[in-house]
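Review form for a predicted model. The reviewer records the input and the model, then writes brief findings.
Reviewer: anonymous (R2)
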Amino acid sequence: MENFVIYTKSYAPDVEVTKRFKESVDKHNIENIPLYISVPKSDINLFKNQLGTEGYTLIADEDIYQLTTNLDGWRTQQIVKTHFNTLKITKNYLCPDADNFFINDFKKSDFMATDDVIYTIITDAPLEKKIINETLKKKSYYSTCFYRTVVAIRKILDNESLSKLYLWGPPPYPWNCQVWDEIQDMLRSNNMNMEQFFIHLESTTGALPREAVLYGEYLIKYRSIDLYPTESWFLADGSPFANEKIYNFYNEGGEFGKTSIDPVFIKKYYLGLGLQDGRTTREKGLDWNGRKSKEIMEELSKLSHIKYEKHINYHV
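Model under review:
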């Protein structure tokens, strides 16, 4: 069994961004960490043709989890991702979205706090996210639907005494298989699988199911593994590149805002990006994310001399 691998799930409409993701792994995976990609059985041949067959292992979603309900793609992809543990391939895995991509070389030690324990993304509300909500969305940061899910999960886990609300993302998510084993056992003991739990959560609380919240809130209560906190290694969901309006807010926000989106700054302080340019965004008729992805990748390609600032090196 491996100690750490990278795994993402995709499907036919996202084959192009998945190809980009795999190419970024091929380029920056300097320790040859095993890469796994799963897709529906019906998409296997398409992905073999587009991505080739070398440098990764392609798995059918149905070999990880057999869906029994008609939940939509956003919900079902969460369910498949959270059952990668059932394959007994690894003890820990990094789970990026298919539209994520690496921009710097990475090692296992970037994601593993110790030889055996993976980091946990757990942060207090970042200042910039509070500002974006107050200025562009005209509402309190803590009123967002993400935190509605946090509160609902805490009530289910009987952990409401914990007063601080944490952010458990964005992707890629660092996950430990033992934690998912325990969560799945907990659901089975209540005569539920993950699909049934998602339906129950949404129908009884109105909160959207979010796999990262379930993992994080379970871990912070039961401490199945040691908790080593970290922010995300990627500028991804909710970043300055989330949409054109937010990007312009940063771009017109003086030195602070412009630095946040400067390619040199990004290359120095992040291992990757997620500009949300997959099918979900395209179906909304939004093409800005795709155009911005190509633009920033071209800019970053000229910055090979800029190295990732692995902060611990300053004090060794």
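Findings: The radius of gyration is 19 Å.
Further findings: Residues 15-28 form the longest helix (14 residues).
Recommendation: see findings above.
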